[in-house]
Here is the input.
Amino acid sequence: MAQAGVARFSQVDAFKGKIMKSVLFHYPILNVGGAEKSSMRMIHALCDRGWDVTLVLTTGGGAMEPEVDPRVKLVRLRPRALGLRFAKARGLGGKLLTLPDLMGYGAMRLIGALRMLPFRFRRYDAAAVLLMGTPSDFVRKTVRARTRAIWIRNDLSGADPTGRVAKALRNAASGIDHFICVSEVSRKSLVQVVPEAGGKDVVVYNILDAAKMRSQADLEPAPFDHGPDGEVTILSVCRLSDRAKGLFRMARVCAALKRKGHRYHWYIGGEGSDRAGLEAEIDALGIGDCMTLLGSLKNPFPAYRAADIVAMLSNYEGLCGVVNEARVLEKPIIATRVSGIDEQLTHGINGLVVDQDEEAIVASLSQLITDKALREKLAKGGYPAALQDDSAKLDRLESLFLGNGSQHE
Here is the structure.
């Protein structure tokens, strides 16, 4: 029966006369972040396996679009983002001044609706929403696919405080075949708040492509120089969002380390909406001499290679890509206790796992800065085989995409 489904829904390669497996992915806007990077690695790997991949973006113009694999059919429903200036404007005068922005937003919505129409007549083996907060109506109601899925990338207990995402997932569950969770903890959080997902919940770890990570680490110099002998380099790579990544706490930790007299320099790679706030916090705490913002890193791996310690101090994650990247490059890492971390790190073996407590973070980072032997031990601590076996992950995805799940035409 599965083979019949493949023959019915797959695309035909007109030049070679063979059946191609087809999948459509939907994503809101392709800016730089962990979810985007892991999605791009998966899409690249599926193209390598002969899949015909279509990536539909709700809004075009994201910073990561140039990195989309050229084999992918890229569709932007709305050519660019408009409407934000009008939404942020205050008072009648501000609203009137930004009225063209609102009109542009309306035009983008109309263009998007028109660009959706052809998808009612195309068929795919599978269609999936790659970010759980993205509305799933397009994948569930417009796209004609044999199998439908939604990726769950976070622990819903931390990432969805209002319950808005959980409500949307409950409403979508009857039209979804698989909820693909990136960690066991994110799976458990899903079925706890969305019982309708029970029996459809599966864990597939993110694709790593470790060999490419290692090769990219040697492509260019690190974005910072090592300081004087004895100065330890700390690196954090994250989206600059305080709510998710604990940026201001990071700055306070840095200040506490400085008061203790440690010799170190802390670099933070990434961009985001809270950059100005973090810069102000760095100035207020007087730590500009030991904490530097690097901005967006198109290739972060030379920075990983040069770092002595990687610090991942988020408030919540799904299965943290920074931990994956640090361990692939055999760097000692300190990580706060977030969802999925116990699937990645064993405390004291290949990293330090600390509670969401500022004093505990300061104490553990102090230990790493002063104990070179501990850093060397953690660097050599290995990484779980299940997280590194990309071939097994891809086999599992293909099985889900081509399986005997429910059909929704």
In short: The longest strand covers residues 144-152. The longest helix spans residues 99-116.
